[in-house]
Amino acid sequence: MSNNNATSVPEAYPMNGGDGTYSYTKNSSYQKAAANVAKTLIDEAIAEKLDIEDFSSASSSAFRIADLGCSVGPNTFACVQNIIEAVKQKYGSQMPDFHVFFNDHAANDFNTLFASLPPERHYFAAGVPGSFHGRLFPEASLHFAHSSYATHWLSKLPEEVTNKNSPAWNKGKIYYTTSPDQVFNAFAAQFRTDMAIFLEARAKELAAGGMMVLIMQTIPDGIHQSRIPSGIMFDFLGSILMEIAKEGLISEEEVDSFNIPVYTTTPNEMAELVERNGSFSIVKMESTSPWLKVGHIVNNTEQRLARELRAGMEGVFKTHFGSDIVDQVFDRLNDKSGQLINQLESSHRQGTQLFLALKRK
Amino acid sequence: MSNNNATSVPEAYPMNGGDGTYSYTKNSSYQKAAANVAKTLIDEAIAEKLDIEDFSSASSSAFRIADLGCSVGPNTFACVQNIIEAVKQKYGSQMPDFHVFFNDHAANDFNTLFASLPPERHYFAAGVPGSFHGRLFPEASLHFAHSSYATHWLSKLPEEVTNKNSPAWNKGKIYYTTSPDQVFNAFAAQFRTDMAIFLEARAKELAAGGMMVLIMQTIPDGIHQSRIPSGIMFDFLGSILMEIAKEGLISEEEVDSFNIPVYTTTPNEMAELVERNGSFSIVKMESTSPWLKVGHIVNNTEQRLARELRAGMEGVFKTHFGSDIVDQVFDRLNDKSGQLINQLESSHRQGTQLFLALKRK
């Protein structure tokens, strides 16, 4: 039943598990800053737009919350806690029990997630393994879905990009930042397919009146991908890989065939995809700027940046290049991170995060 | 919220994780035989006694099933599949989506469990970390709870047994089989406390009309603990430990202070505990005899028996004695398993499993 709406099996690139030096648990301060920026907006959306009366027809035994793409914590716990507090703030003692579902790929380190669940939590917890590019929950069973920094990951690389004879073959690059239009178009088409599947699945799973909050990378209208932090970072990693290829440790073709399966949407594009799906109304939509508040940029702590990028991206690199090359890439990134931070400081950091609150019609 | 009904933090002795030589995944054929014996009884209980009309007041979005103490598979998947088929057999297309919750201690290897979920399953799956000696689910949210070979594990060792100055100090033994009454009484009291907490939690979690099936070790009236397979096996392991102590590799006091936190109830005792709880009616209660169908006894495959015992019991031994001694214990068990099998073949193997189907009033 999982993934039965997807056209192919989604690929899994979980964040680094465990709690070691390069773990996501210890290296997700950017995602934390992003969540903090979103906190006030979530509070407002719940206070102004959540209507528990809408659920009365369902006469449910619990208020069910899902965090989609939860990784291994700790950000997911803070986020869920915030949602519960905002709901309680509004409805007080009328609330039934809270049931929280932590979702990520089956390859995610759920053992670490479960071991770090807050012992004093005031909700019942469950883990849900599987891709959110497909069904995960029974029909009309959820009341609140949340996803932070997960839906910009594509379910898979677009096929054209992996075909050497296609005009979308991304020679010498690992991202579409400065690639021919065909490459960008292939990424955009994959994202639109993925998001259509995502919205269709959530439309089935959310009860009428239920709310969904998506927090994801975005790019402001009129700004080029090469000027925003994600484009700069991915190109920087690409140049390190090409450097390693020129030294003969890997082949250039290995770099050509490697692409980061991430897409940065625009607010307009997301609004259009939501409208096309037809099951949700947009309750709140706002571009925010967490990059202006991230410690490792503001305070120029170079090692931290390299570690954070590694915690989030290592999985994709390892699958394609193997562990030895991953060490090379991130060691070199670490050595050069002053240079990367300089580039990030002069990048366009306003409005690179989209906050989108939707309500199931 | 987890364990908030328990008087202390329950101890966790998960079955061996992963899928290696000593994994529970590869070494749980006894539990499989036990589940097979129970299959027909579950089918009958569902066909005769499950009344989906009872749930209509809950107007639920899903039919929710929990397997309590699921371990890492594969038995739990077969069991859940069987329950779903029996429910579908009875109600056909009227059924809403099935939502299945796999529960075990947070220390259980959920990563292995999730990786082995049947890809073609016709239900939505979730993992629930935490002790069933406490609340795990929202009020009245479950329709079917199942637990096989889990509820005979105590939440912790009774305190008296761990106190050298108590008359329940179990000198020279690791189980109560041939111990003074005080030792047996301490185990029995702990079980009765645990089962009271277990039934109270499930009474809150099961919707009215919901069904619970418990499959657990039992001992027929009038048969002594030393004559049934579990008593024989635990005593055998105890004698190996005393042998190791006599050789000086561990102290005798280490053996004295070690006890297997398992209790074998009688059908009468369980019936009394259910009645005392008051929230359930007994739909079906039957003693069955899976030991008469277990391959490694019937076919005398000695290595298999040692491996299976290790997969289930290693966790308890390791916590107390450390890995080196665990290897010693199970290597010696392997060498002597012909002897153990002889004892098992002449043991009392009828009626050592209790099948109990309860209905939430």
From TrEMBL, chains A, B:
<dbReference type="GO" id="GO:0046872">
    <property type="term" value="F:metal ion binding"/>
</dbReference>
<dbReference type="Pfam" id="PF03492">
    <property type="entry name" value="Methyltransf_7"/>
</dbReference>
<keyword id="KW-0808">Transferase</keyword>
<dbReference type="InterPro" id="IPR042086">
    <property type="entry name" value="MeTrfase_capping"/>
</dbReference>
<keyword id="KW-0479">Metal-binding</keyword>
<keyword id="KW-0489">Methyltransferase</keyword>
<dbReference type="GO" id="GO:0032259">
    <property type="term" value="P:methylation"/>
</dbReference>
<protein>
    <submittedName>
        <fullName>Putative S-adenosylmethionine-dependent methyltransferase</fullName>
    </submittedName>
</protein>
<dbReference type="InterPro" id="IPR005299">
    <property type="entry name" value="MeTrfase_7"/>
</dbReference>
<dbReference type="GO" id="GO:0008168">
    <property type="term" value="F:methyltransferase activity"/>
</dbReference>
<keyword id="KW-0460">Magnesium</keyword>
<dbReference type="InterPro" id="IPR029063">
    <property type="entry name" value="SAM-dependent_MTases_sf"/>
</dbReference>
